[in-house]
Amino acid sequence: MGSLLLAVIYLIFISLGLPDSLLGSGWPKMQEVFNVPSSYAGYVSMAISFMTIISALLSPRMIKRFHTKWIVIVSIAMTVLGLLGFSFSGSYWMLFLFAIPYGLGAGSIDASVNHYVANHYSSSVMNFLHCFYGVGAVISPYIMALALSRARWNEGYRWTAYLQTGILLICIISIPLWKKNESEDTEEQIRDSAGIRETLKVPGVILTLIAFFAYCAGEATGFLWTPSYFAGTKEGMSDNLIASFGSLVFGGLMLGRLISGFVSGKLGDRTLIRIGIGVELLGIILLFIPNTHYMVAAVGFVIIGTGMGPVYPAIQHMAPANFGKRYSAAVIGLQMASAYVGGTFMPMVFGILQQQLGIGIMPVYLLIFAGLSIGLLEIVYRKTDRNKTDLQ
Fold it and tell me: What are phi and psi of 234, to 5 degrees?
């Protein structure tokens, strides 16, 4: 029973990743159909992210009132609605209408399942969980590519909605499996969980949010701007090769999480984060090496992604250990909100900076956020350890 429930949870995170890559993959054709500038994709993406942030902030209240299984089922249904809405949109403005359920569903799944896994499963499970998110994010561009070659961009969203519907049905069928981790003590802990205002007063929480913001700012900047870095700093590269390098950080990220899934039980969350950011810094150092050939930088970006791999899952997983189960739901919800804020806006800030200073500043930008993240987390560890000692 336990293994079946875990399989369902992994499937839920595949469903979380599925919608995330569709807009970028389909936008070149969608832009032509809607007759809008290419930059207008950013407004749609920001609308989805804004709704996701709202959903993440509401998640502690939802977790307190409803069991995770019901939040997941309703949230996946909302993403299905959003995907179908996108597929039937005949005008650009309609995308903003359906961005509401599209974003709200994603934030609720992310926060509630992360909270559930952090409280019931090991760090290893958390790392593998985020690997499966990557599986979904990798699959959806291929779905869109197939739709563009066989039909229209609309079908890419529609076929993904059908796939999400299948996952939704599996989640509904699996409802009895969730009883494995249900108990009176667990339900009492959830009902007694703290709200956002109270949680923000806990020592170390705000610093954790800033650290998570910094980490996600670096990660999202790497995802978006890596091809542009090669185009602006290296010579003799074809357009296809430059475009393919957009997967370097992402591929490293999945590798890092896969490795962490096997070793996290022995190392623990804090050690994983320290090693991960140390590896990330090594990759950033490679970018500073003056070399016109692209291979050294390519290896550097893969190493950066590998180092980043365990950081996100480990920060989420150690929330109950650092702050207690009473505050874990609110902490994880706040972390999700700060993650989406960092991932949404800081790549845009980098875009403005690189227009003025050149794309070559990217290693410095990544270095600042990596240093900020590890520095703040080390302060958090001291605060939370001191707080635990005072309570004993």
Answer: -115, 155
Say yes or no to pLDDT of 82 above 90.
yes
Task: Name the residue among 37, 356, 375, 4 with its Cα closest to residue 211.
Answer: 375
Query: What are the residues whose beta carbons fall under 8 Å from the beta carbon of 70, sequence distance 6 or more?
Result: none
Q: Which of 71-74's residues contact partners 24+ apart within 8 Å by CB, and which partners? A: 71/108, 71/109, 71/112, 72/12, 72/108, 72/109, 72/112, 72/113, 72/171, 73/168, 73/171, 73/172, 74/105, 74/108
DSSP 8-state class, residue 119? H
Instruction: Flag whether pLDDT at 185 surpasses 70.
Output: no
| Torsion angle in degrees (nearest 10) through CA of 151, 154, 155, 160 | 150
Is residue 282 within 8 Å of 303, Cβ to Cβ?
yes
What is the identity of the amino acid at 264?
A: S
Query: Which tens digit of pLDDT belongs to each residue from 253-309?
Result: 888 988 888 887 788 888 999 999 999 999 999 998 887 678 888 899 999 999 998
Q: How many CA atoms lie within 13 Å of 94's alpha carbon, on the beta-carbon side?
A: 13
Which residue intervals of the chain are DSSP H helices?
Answer: 2-17, 22-34, 40-65, 68-88, 92-120, 123-150, 153-173, 184-191, 196-200, 205-233, 239-244, 248-267, 269-287, 294-308, 311-317, 319-323, 325-357, 362-391
Query: What's the start-to-end Cα distance of the chain, in Å?
Result: 37
Distance (Å, whole) CA 70 – CA 82? 18
Residue 170: the pLDDT is: 92
- Digit-coded pLDDT (tens) for 39-64: 687 788 888 888 888 888 887 778 77
Half-sphere exposure at residue 360, Cβ-oriented, CA atoms within 13 angstroms: 9
Q: How far is CA 214 from the centre of its chain?
A: 13
* Distance in angstroms (rounded) separating the CA atoms of residues 80 and 57: 21
Q: How many CB atoms lie within 10 A of CB 169?
A: 12
| CA 198 vs CA 60, 193, 331, 386: distances in Å | 12, 10, 10, 19
Q: Decide: 332 and 319 in contact? Cβ < 8 Å.
A: yes
The whole-angstrom separation of Cα 297 and Cα 281 is 13
